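2024-03-11 09:14:02 DEBUG pipeline.ingest accepted 1 chain
2024-03-11 09:14:02 DEBUG pipeline.ingest length=156
2024-03-11 09:14:03 DEBUG pipeline.predict start
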Amino acid sequence: MRLFTDQATLDAALSALQILEGPRCSLVSAEVPLISNLDVCRNIALIYQYHRDASKKYALDFVRQCLQRFGLEKIAHKKNPELSNEERFYVMLLRAAMIERAVIAIDCPFRMLLYNNDRDFIYEALEKIDDLFVRCEIFDYDQEKQKNGLIHDSKN
């Protein structure tokens, strides 16, 4: 976890990671919403198809398997407004992991998880899909230090 004092510093660090990792950098952020007219499966599968040159059927089958890791098969055909904050976070995380050799950047996770202050929720979600990405960095503010637990401080 990388903690920052202000938005400008956090944005600069996110930009630096995106430049360093290029197209492998995949953002999970309230600023990068799901595609509203697609259901969960298609939101995730579209990224897989594009980045891995996969057929629609293969991508959808793979996405359903990924949703099973979270026990979320039942939301496969839901659209964004029908999802809870936690379900939406899982979908955004899976979508980010569909890029081959993904480096996932999670931008202020508790902006997306409004009523969930449990940092273990994020780490447990990452553990369930740790074979789908190379690295994950979580960016947040200093004031979130107690909620998130300090793992890596951007000042050090």
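2024-03-11 09:14:41 DEBUG pipeline.report The CA atoms of residues 9 and 154 lie 10 Å apart.
2024-03-11 09:14:41 DEBUG pipeline.predict end
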